[in-house]
Amino acid sequence: MPDQPQAFDQPIRVLVLGGGAVSAEVLDWLLSEPLVKVVGVYDARADAPALVKARAQGIPVYHDLEQALASCAPCTAMNLTGNEMVDEVAAERLGAGSVIGGVEAQLFWRIVSRWRELKDAFAYQATHDALTRLPNRRMLTELALQEIRHAMRYREPLSIAVLDLDLFKQVNDLYGHAAGDAALVHAASTIRATLRRADIFGRWGGEEFLALFPKTPPEGAVRALGKALASLKDRPLAWKDHQIRLSFSAGVAGGVPEEGDAERRFDQWLAAADRALYQAKQRGRGQVCAA
Questions:
Q1: Distance, CA of 71 to CA of 15 (rounded, Å)
Q2: Is 117 a catalytic residue?
Q3: Does residue 95 carry a pLDDT above 80?
Q4: Where do the domains of the chain lie, and which CATH numbers do they carry?
Q5: Peptide bond into 5 cis (omega under 30)
Q6: Is the pTM here over 0.70, yes or no?
Q7: pLDDT tens digits along 232-280
Q8: Which one of 66, 207, 208, 219 is the catalytic residue?
Q9: 180-192 average pLDDT score
C-alpha cells in the first residue's frame, strides 16, 4: 500500500525561549508563517522585547521556564537564550527531538536574518524606481490616496503636480541614453532637494514625475515648483565635455477635497494637472501652470 502524503492540518506549536531583540525578530517571522502557531514566549524579564511583542499579539508569556514548558506542551521549543542548561531542561520535559537550540538556533537565526533582508529588498524594489531611487508609480498612487483621505477627514488643502522634463528626447538623441539616464537622476535629485521634507516626490514614468504637497493649496505648490524649476535651470548636468541644461513643465491641481471616493478624486485631480501641464507646454515650456 503506497505511503500517504503527510497532511499539515494543524500548525506546528512553537514555544520561544528567550525574549531578547533576536527573539523579537524571530517572533515576527514565526507569526508570518501559516504553518506555525506560537503558543508562548518565555523570559525571566518582564520587559523583554519579545514578551512585549507577544503581549500585543495576545500570545501567553511566561517568566518561569518549568511553567512555560508544562503549559505549552506538546510543542517545539526554540531556545534563543544561548543557555545550554535551558536546552537540557526543555529536552527533559518535551523530548530531545522537540528542542531547537545551540548551533541549530544560530543557523535558524541566520536564515531569518537573511529572509528579512531579502523581504526588505523586495519591498523596496516594488515601491521605488531603480534609476532615481524615488517612489515609483505604485507607491505614489498609494501615498496620494492616503493624503487625499487625510485631507478629506481634516478639511485640509492638498495639491498634486505632474512634471515633465522638457525636450528630453533631444538629450537622448544628442548625447545617448546614458546621458538621458543621468539627466533623469540629476533632475530628480535637484527637484527633491528644493522641496519640503513633508512633500512627496517620485517618478511617475518615463520623464514624468509626480509631486504631492500636503496642507498646501495650488498657489503654494506653484510657488514651490517655481523655485525647483529655477534651481534646475541654474544647475546644468555636467556630461563629459558638455553642460546639458534642463528644465521641466508642470501642471498643478488640488484644493480642499470634499468627502467621498478618494480614488475618484485622485483621478480627477490627475486629469486636471495633466491638462495644466499641456497648457504649460503650449506656452513655451519651462513653466508651471495651475488648473
A1: 10
A2: no
A3: yes
A4: 12-125 (3.40.50.720), 137-290 (3.30.70.270)
A5: no
A6: no
A7: 999 999 999 999 999 999 999 999 999 999 999 999 999 999 999 999 9
A8: 207
A9: 98
